[in-house]
Specification:
The complex is a heterodimer of chains A (354) and B (271). With 354 residues, chain A is mainly α. Chain A has helices at residues 2-11, 13-32, 38-61, 64-98, 117-125, 127-158, 163-171, 178-189, 194-201, 205-210, 223-247, 251-259, 264-293, 296-301, 309-319, 323-348, and strands spanning 100-101, 111-112. With 271 residues, chain B is mainly α. Chain B is built from eleven helices and no strands. The chains are: A mainly alpha (354), B mainly alpha (271).
């Protein structure tokens, strides 16, 4: 058999490599979701194993040309199979559990019976949480652009030899724990904290209250505090991609625009901004998506009136033990975000997201 | 860029620099708080109000036994998952950067997906898989989960680093009679190693700090972030600040060493 594989493989090695990779990934995911059980699962795992053996056989016995063509698939295989089993398969079990019923409140095993009630409950009982999740993360994303773009711009165009140092400074805060950073903000924004004290001293309380950033003289436990925390925690994910795209902008283009009697402002608007849009696009995805699913900021900086969908999923899954409902909410969150990404990339899309 | 000549231009330039400076300062506010409060001697269980300067916390950072255990668990998980994810991710990165092949676009897209899926979806979906398998969640499931999100991260980071790599060097080595295996270990690997190490360092930090995905897959296991979250209702000891500051200082030191090493390597190769 192996000689047949080698002969066929010599003619179309890349098809053999790609086919074996996709087949093995698909079969592994199918076994992982228990679509294939019993003898079929054994057969599937055997095929996965055989595809790896075939790859090794072709790679060792083939010509250099064959080897070169088969190499990328061999290099990809272990990592991709890991993702097939522990990223792709779980999404299917999540979907199946979201359509299942718990026989009783304390049951461990849910029965799959195409039960769409979980989705109905997700929308009727948790509408406000979904709304808050997307509203808070949306506002936070806009704020990260407002804060991050100028900083990225200054580092890219005026950083000079300090560019790398400044970039390092942007990254350094994120080597301390996410939770502890948020707890630090909780302490700073608390009723006896530095921020509230300073605002009181400068008599700015009324101003912040009219702006909706304070509530009865409190900074903490308000929607503004949650948005503030999200903005802080995801800021570097906006700064770094914007910086990467600004760094590539050829300064001579700006000079050329000015030579052609463009003002600084219009040179910025018509030359720099369009060239930096891929960075803003990537930054928006990297900020908005994790922020929409976040529950840490709402947990530590918010109140029961500011919970986001992440809080509800965590509560239903790990505290209330209603895994099917939590799965439905999780799945809806993922669907909404996917639709957002597709629409968004139609309007602003670029290929080099990564 | 040409220097702005008008007075308005200078003012605008200064205003923008000041704004950027403030933004950078904003990033450091909680960091300063964490480090400063690691030297605090708190009254009661919560280290949130400034009382008095002390070095006690830094002398005995491991006085809280459950905190120490959680921290050690986190280090073990991060070490194991980072080694495995770095190997798997670097292989993917080399495949994507080195070769042109059929299906690379689709596979590339698949690789980005885990990074654009909210952590709560990654965590809860993986937990449903383990529930479905009747696997007790604990150390192993957390390691599996961490490898899952680290692989994509390492692959994309390393690929970005090796993009500018001159692959004709491999050709040269083989023309001089080196076998492909020897070429890889003697030529390619030493040159891409700094990129791989940088990605490994970052993904180690990601693992050490991961809270959401870990929470769903930890079962009764307690890691460093899970300890902080679990104990926050009753206490927030200064040792937490000490360990967080220590992680920060070690990472910064490693980053600096990496930068210096990279700079030396560049000088050597251009000399």
């Amino acid at each position: 058999m192996s000689s047949a594989v080698v002969r066929w493989g010599v003619r179309r090695p890349e098809m053999l490599g790609l086919g074996a990779l996709l087949l093995a990934g698909g079969l592994l995911a199918a076994v992982g979701t228990r679509l294939l059980t019993g003898p079929l699962a054994v057969l599937a795992l055997g095929t996965v194993f055989a595809s790896i053996v075939a790859l090794v056989v072709v790679a060792t016995m083939g010509t250099p040309e064959t080897r070169r063509k088969i190499a990328p698939y061999g290099l990809l295989k272990p990592g991709m199979l890991w993702l097939a089993l522990f990223y792709l398969a779980p999404l299917f079990t999540l979907l199946r559990l979201s359509l299942s019923t718990l026989p009783s409140r304390f049951a461990v095993e849910a029965n799959f019976d195409w039960n769409f009630d979980n989705y109905v409950t997700a929308f009727t009982d948790f509408g406000p949480q979904f709304q808050r999740a997307f509203m808070y993360s949306g506002i936070a994303t806009i704020l990260t652009i407002a804060i991050g773009y100028p900083l990225a711009y200054v580092i890219a165009f005026r950083g000079g030899k300090f560019r790398n140092l400044l970039l390092g400074l942007v990254v350094i805060p994120f080597f301390t724990s996410y939770l502890i950073r948020t707890i630090a903000w909780r302490s700073i924004l608390s009723d006896n904290g530095i921020a509230t004290g300073m605002i009181g001293k400068f008599r700015l309380t009324w101003m912040l209250e009219t702006m909706g950033m304070m509530d009865n003289g409190r900074l903490i436990n308000t929607p503004a505090a949650v948005i503030f925390g999200l903005t802080y925690n995801f800021l570097p994910f906006m700064i770094l991609p914007i910086y990467v795209s600004l760094e590539k902008v050829d300064v001579r283009l700006v000079d050329a625009a000015k030579d052609l009697y463009s003002t600084s402002t219009s040179a910025f608007r018509k030359v720099v901004v369009p060239l930096s849009l891929p960075g803003v696009f990537a930054g928006t995805l990297l900020t908005f998506i994790p922020a929409a699913g976040d529950f840490v900021n709402a947990l530590y900086l918010g109140s029961p009136n500011t919970t986001m969908i992440g809080n509800s999923i965590q509560d239903q899954f790990l505290v209330q033990n209603n895994v099917p409902l939590a799965s439905a909410m999780s799945f809806v969150l993922m669907l909404i975000i996917t639709v957002f990404v597709i629409i968004y990339s139609r309007f602003f899309g670029t290929e080099d997201l990564a | 860029m040409s220097a702005p000549s008008s007075r308005g231009g200078r003012v605008a330039r200064f205003a923008l620099n000041a704004y950027a400076g403030l933004a950078l300062l904003y990033l450091f506010v909680p960091i300063v708080w964490i480090v400063v409060f690691s030297f605090n001697k708190p009254k009661g269980n919560y280290n949130v109000a400034w009382q008095q300067f002390t070095l006690e916390n830094w002398k005995n950072p491991f006085s809280d036994e459950s905190l120490t255990n959680a921290f050690v668990e986190s280090l073990k998980i991060a070490a194991i998952s980072t080694v495995i994810a770095t190997v798997l991710g670097s292989m993917i990165a080399i495949a994507l950067a080195r070769y042109k092949f059929r299906g690379s676009g689709g596979l590339n897209f698949f690789l980005v997906l885990p990074l654009t899926t909210p952590e709560i979806v990654l965590g809860s979906s993986l937990a449903t898989l383990f529930l479905d398998w009747n696997v007790t969640r604990g150390f192993t499931t957390v390691v599996i989960a961490h490898i899952m999100f680290q692989v994509s991260f390492v692959a994309l980071t390393v690929r970005a680093r090796v993009r500018g790599f001159d692959w004709t060097l491999e050709q040269a080595a083989q023309d001089l009679g080196a076998t492909p295996v020897r070429t890889f270990w003697k030529v390619t690997f030493p040159l891409i190693l700094p990129g791989i190490l940088a990605a490994a360092l970052l993904s180690f930090a990601l693992s050490l700090d991961d809270f959401i995905i870990t929470l769903f897959n930890a079962g009764s296991l307690v890691t460093f972030p899970l300890y902080i979250n679990g104990s926050f209702r009753v206490k927030f000891p200064p040792e937490v600040n000490v360990l967080a500051s220590a992680i920060l200082f070690v990472s910064v030191a490693l980053m600096l060493m990496g930068t210096l090493w990279g700079a030396r390597g560049r000088r050597k190769s251009t000399a």
